[in-house]
Specification:
Its EC number is 2.7.7.6. It is built from 46 helices and 29 strands. The protein is mostly helical and 1207 residues long.
Length: 1207
């Protein structure tokens, strides 16, 4: 931090901003219209701020000054010449004049003169390095001249045929050779590999296939062919090659009509012992069609295809080809069989979900009136064009809401310096990227996959912009190199050039809007997905994910480019020191959670420069911000949400394939319920609550208010303890205190950045209507795609949003607003709804005061559990009360209904547990039941019994057992929290109690967690038996070598992604990165995670199913509906209808034999025939699965009449 403090104050910063001996960054020569960095003549090289002083003059003056400070010997000061780089712009290094040359000035030397000489030499050396890179920019890459096309075959017979045919090429056309070659029977080389090596091979295969596909995508087909030849020519490497790899390269040559090269690939395919499939034949025939070959060769090819039991019709129905490729394929086929015509695809079977839960949703009913948006067709079309522009630009620039600084000379100079540095960095980064590309291309030319095609996915300008954005967003305390590498790799993947047909999309989307616009009608009411599918246009095939190792390796390479290239004058850090170039980023090691990790950290002087400049722009990826038009309806696991940016229906770690494969194999109709629910959630239009936003911004720009959830700026972070003379024990305490304060400072920085993104996006969207497209996690739980600004965040985040489409309150809307307000305060939790309404009337003066004078009045709203949402509700009620007729008031405010410990509700319903059902409000009652208070009361009973028996810790806990102490543990037990995790939760609550003796915290937390589990066992006996059955089933499934799978009642296939970690190492560079990969389906499952994860994940899949059913039925009734998992939102006027739907669908869901269906599925999936299985685990698994826990006597119909089930 000492370097940072050197330049504090206006004068100090000005000194830091004017580098000595480094004119190129801050010079501003040149006439209007010329390149800002065009090189002037030697005499014109000047220092910023002193336009009349040339560089030689300054150097000579400096030497004379140093000469006066000391005596020394006679030396020669070299005059400086400045050269101009051809066509590059910029000032290039001064050249040294030879000793004794004309202009050499004899001077007296000293150690200071030598120091000056050394500083100048360092700067010259850097420019010489850059100068040496320029010729490489204009040279044609030499690696392209040495790419191989002819393969080296391992089979002597095939190698002989290839040589013979090459010698007789004029007499034996390649097409005839192909026909003969296809008749060769494949002889697969024997390959034996153990499970571990097979897993490693699979990872290498994924990398190689991704490399080949990326080469085709970036126009480097000869390079892909060369690498395939090189891999095939080595027997050990050939086991990596698979049929899709050969097909990928063949299809590339077929598109170019290069039959000779395609023939080489066919030779390799046969040499590897592989049999061609439909795609192989499609490539060959397509190429023949482009070359207009004779019918005889094509006929022999078709005959061989039939002998291989491959259908000719399958070429047109089962192979994913573009329209142009299908045309060339058909031309070739018709040359041999003129009467052939591809059969139109058979009409798909009725695409109707057969789930009994969805019969009503998909029943034909002309009287159904689905909700429409409040916008006209013309308005929506305009919004579509705006969103299209955003996605084609790939990024969105947003003005920051940080307090604008006064535009002092210091601030202006800092911004000017940053702009100059960035302009220089852009050129340096471009040169570095070119050098890296050349290096990676040479590596690929040696026959091994490299990063070259991935670096070509984006232009150099785009990559430079991405790197500079990363630098700008780097926090002062730095970031893990592994995290940065992964993020950079993912961002490159997301920014791949868009290949969609924009014109076709625009036409289809315009037709789709007729279903949603307020001023248009469609012939027959239908769901958005159904309407979109009826408009035609086939979907693009899903994109294959890149392996995690590729993403990290690519990102690591880019991060290292950033570290090497981005430098700044040392004068920014030490104005009085020598002028050299120093890195902006430093690679250091630090301990995080007892692990040593590599961190990239910005230089404190650069951080200070950024803070002083206080630039007011933030840059987001287009997929990180809400959409400006309704999202595309979800029609498949890989198609929906954004217009051009590919998005997965099921979010997962990059490189994961198992979830996507399950979804792709699932019958399309079985996914309709989930697809339509996601579409419905995304079609809700939102707007920003401007009144709340203004108040939050005032606090944010001041000093924040952590009590209200507005993070304080870094200037409010605790300062490091002052150094002083201390004993070793005191020093150790000071080190611990320093670590604690640094951790707090990092947390404050993170919270502040999160709030800055959220508030800046809110301000950016203040006067817009926007949408939040949704997808789901592997359990089926739904989330908005926009990570920074959505309704799933904190109290503050939720208060900033309201529905864009309003509805009249009606006769009961105001009552629901009052109930909602009291719910948000956290008061009256054990009271009836009528009592809550009465309480709202009793405190109406406080409500109105909060709305009218939120920051200067009595501030009643600040004492609420959810203060910002409480304030927003106060403002809404005030407007309603002041309106002429509350029933006609148009309200945009969302009202929430929360489940009462929803996980336990599902467990109680599964087990028909009457006692548990009553505790979580499944049974009707006059007052709400509070399970947390009941558990606390039961724990208190146990405590009193133990205290009477003289248990010391039970006596100490007298008066300290409360609802708050046990709530988190009770809430999370249902989601699989262990006793260890529960003890930590209780320990945190006990430490918050000022009066509790802290020396008993550890012992008391152990005691309490045991009693909480015992209480739950007594109160929810059915719940615990189901939980144990699920856990044991998952353990045994894992021991058989499989990951746990199941299908939700809505038809969504689920698989748990918990496998044994395999370490992946990426060597070289700044450091070797090692990370755990547990996504490979060939790896053994992690038994501990599988068994602990199954109960909570299964319950999450049930609560997601309940939410989706509620969403679909609310949409059918014309309601606006969104959710935060088990918290359902709608307009105040529609709360009654939503409550009815919510209860009905919960009863319908749990009326299904969920546990028995699960048992049958698991038996079929994991115990197909236990009599032939030699594994004892399979036998034990079968016995366990057949022992479904018995159910109790609770009547589910009571839920329909329970007021506090969701309230």
């Amino acid at each position: 931090m000492s370097a940072l403090r050197c330049g504090r104050g206006a004068a100090g910063l000005r000194r830091a901003l004017w580098p000595k001996g480094y004119p190129c960054l801050l010079a501003e020569e040149g006439k209007a219209g010329e390149d800002r960095w065009s090189a002037p003549s030697p005499a014109a090289v000047t220092f910023a701020g002193s336009p009349d002083i040339s560089l030689p003059t300054v150097l000579e003056a400096r030497v004379r000054q140093l000469q006066a400070e000391g005596t020394a010997e006679e030396v020669t000061v070299k005059r400086v010449a400045v050269a101009q780089a051809p066509e590059a712009g910029g000032i290039w290094p001064p050249r040294q004049a030879p000793l004794g040359a004309e202009g050499a000035v004899p001077m007296l030397s000293s150690r200071w003169a030598q120091k000056l000489d050394k500083d100048q030499h360092l700067i010259e050396k850097r420019w010489q390095q850059l100068d040496g890179k320029l010729p490489k920019m204009v040279e044609k890459p030499t690696w392209e001249k040495h790419l191989r096309t002819e393969p080296r075959l391992l089979s002597r017979k095939l190698a002989g045929q290839l040589q013979q045919w090459e010698r007789k090429r004029p007499q034996s056309p390649w097409e005839e050779q192909l026909a003969r070659l296809l008749q060769e029977a494949p002889q697969r080389l024997s390959r034996e590999a153990d499970e571990g090596s097979e897993s490693r091979l699979e990872g290498q295969r994924q990398k190689l296939l991704a490399f080949l596909e990326c080469c085709l995508l970036t126009g480097h087909l000869p390079l892909a062919h060369h690498v395939l030849v090189a891999q095939h020519s080595r027997a050990p490497q050939q086991q990596l090659l698979t049929l899709p790899m050969y097909n990928t390269v063949m299809l590339g040559w077929a598109r170019q009509g290069s039959f000779k090269e395609l023939m080489y690939v066919f030779f390799m395919l046969k040499d590897a012992g592989l049999a061609p499939d439909l795609l192989s034949y499609a490539a060959a025939l397509q190429c023949m069609g482009r070359l207009d070959q004779d019918a005889g060769t094509i006929q022999r090819c078709l005959k061989q295809m039939e002998q291989d039991r491959l259908s000719l019709q399958g070429l047109f129905s089962a192979v994913p080809l573009s329209a142009e490729e299908r045309e060339e394929l058909l031309r070739a086929v018709r040359k041999a069989r003129p009467a052939f015509s591809p059969q139109p695809p058979p009409p798909p079977p009725p695409q109707v979900n057969t789930s009994p839960l969805l019969q009503e949703i998909y029943a034909k009913d002309p009287s159904v009136s689905y909700p429409k948006l409040h916008l006209s067709l013309k308005e929506l079309q305009g919004l579509f064009r705006q969103q299209l522009g955003v996605e084609m630009a790939t990024t969105v620039t947003v003005e920051s809401v940080e307090k604008a600084p006064l535009l002092t000379e210091e601030v202006l100079q800092a911004r000017k310096t940053l702009a100059a540095l960035r302009a220089e960095w852009e050129s340096v980064l471009s040169l570095e990227l070119q050098e890296i590309k050349e290096s990676e291309a040479r590596a690929a030319a040696e026959g091994r996959p490299s990063l070259f095609p991935y670096l070509c996915l984006l232009s150099e300008k785009e990559l430079v912009g991405l790197l500079l954005q990363t630098l700008q967003a780097l926090p002062p305390h730095g970031e893990s190199l592994l995290f940065l590498a992964h993020e950079l790799g993912v961002r490159v993947l997301k920014r791949k050039r868009l290949r969609n047909q924009v014109e076709e999309l625009e036409q289809r989307y315009s037709e789709y809007l007729h279903l949603l616009a307020s001023d248009t009608q469609v012939a027959e009411p239908c769901l958005p997905r159904q309407h979109w599918e009826a408009l035609g246009m086939p979907e693009a095939p899903p994109e294959q994910p890149w392996p995690m190792s590729v993403l990290v390796q690519l990102g690591k390479q880019l991060a290292e480019v950033l570290v090497r290239a981005v430098q700044m004058p040392s004068s920014l850090a030490a104005p009085r020191g020598p002028s050299t170039l120093i890195p902006v980023l430093y690679h250091v090691y630090s301990f995080r959670s007892f692990r040593q990790i590599g961190i990239l950290k910005p230089h404190p002087a650069f951080t200070q420069l950024q803070e002083t400049a206080a630039e007011r722009t933030l840059i987001f990826e287009s997929t990180e911000v809400p959409m400006l038009c309704p999202p595309l309806p979800w029609t498949s696991p890989h198609s929906g949400a954004f217009l051009l940016s590919p998005t997965k229906m099921m979010r997962s770690l990059e490189g994961t394939q198992q979830h996507q494969l399950l979804l792709e194999r699932c019958p399309p109709a079985e996914l309709h319920g989930a697809l339509d629910a996601l579409t419905q959630l995304g079609n809700c239009a939102w707007r920003v609550n401007g009144r709340v936003l203004d108040l939050v911004l005032d606090l944010f720009r001041d000093k924040g208010c952590p009590r209200l959830g507005v993070p304080s700026p870094p200037t409010e972070a605790p300062r490091p303890p002052e150094g002083r003379q201390a004993s070793p024990a005191d020093k150790a305490e000071m080190r611990r205190e320093l670590a604690r304060r640094l951790k707090v400072a990092r947390e404050m920085q993170s919270l502040r950045a999160d709030a800055l993104y959220r508030l800046s996006l809110a301000q950016h969207l203040r006067n817009h209507v926007f949408w939040l497209p949704h997808n789901m996690d592997f359990r089926g739980r739904t989330y908005p795609c926009s990570p920074h600004f959505n309704h799933l965040g904190s109290d503050l985040a939720r208060a900033l949003l309201e529905f864009a489409q309003g509805r009249p309150l009606g006769p009961h809307g105001l009552d629901w607003l009052k109930i909602h307000l009291v719910n948000l305060t956290g008061l009256k939790k054990r009271e009836s709804l009528q009592t809550r309404r009465d309480y709202a009337d009793a405190v109406m003066e406080d409500i109105l005061d909060s709305a009218e004078r939120p920051m200067t009045g009595r501030k009643w709203w600040m004492e609420a559990d959810e203060p910002w949402q409480t304030l927003a509700c106060c403002m809404e009620i005030a407007q309603v009360v002041h309106s002429p007729d509350p029933t006609t008031y148009i309200s945009h405010f969302p009202v929430h209904q929360d489940g009462s410990c929803n996980g336990l509700q599902h467990y109680a319903a599964l087990g028909r547990d009457s006692t548990g059902a009553t505790s979580v409000n499944l049974s009707p009652s006059d007052l709400p039941q509070d399970v947390y208070s009941e558990v606390a009361a039961q724990v208190e009973v146990f405590r009193k019994q133990d205290a009477k028996q003289g248990v010391r810790v039970a006596q100490v806990l007298e008066g300290f057992i409360s609802r708050k102490v046990v709530k988190q543990t009770v809430m999370t037990v249902v989601y699989g929290v262990t006793r260890y995790g529960g003890r930590l939760q209780i320990e945190r609550r006990l430490r918050e109690l000022e009066d509790f003796p802290q020396e008993f915290v550890w012992e008391a937390s152990h005691y309490l967690v045991r009693q909480v589990f015992n209480s739950l066992q007594e109160m929810f006996s059915g719940t615990r038996s189901i939980q144990r059955w699920l856990t044991e089933s998952a353990r045994l499934i894992s021991l058989t070598g499989s990951a746990v799978e199941w299908i939700t009642p809505l038809g969504v296939p689920i698989i748990q992604p918990y496998h044994r970690d395999s370490k992946v190492m990426i060597k070289g560079g700044l450091q070797s990165l090692t990370f755990s990969s547990s996504v490979d389906t060939n790896q053994k499952p992690n038994t501990l995670k599988q068994k602990n994860g199954f109960p909570p994940n299964f319950i999450h899949s049930l609560d997601s199913t309940h939410m989706m059913l509620t969403a679909l039925h609310c949409y059918r009734k014309g309601l606006t509906f969104v959710s935060v998992h088990d918290c359902f939102w709608t307009h105040a006027a529609d709360v009654g209808v939503m409550n009815q739907v919510c209860r009905e669908q919960f009863v319908r869901l749990h009326s299904q034999p969920i546990l028995h269906d699960l048992s049958r599925f698991l038996l079929k999936r994991f115990c197909p025939d236990s009599r032939t299985s030699k594994s004892m685990w399979v036998s034990r698994l079968k016995d366990t699965l057949l022992s479904v826990p018995p159910t109790g006597t609770f009547d589910l119909e009571q839920v329909k009449h329970s007021t506090f089930f969701f309230s």
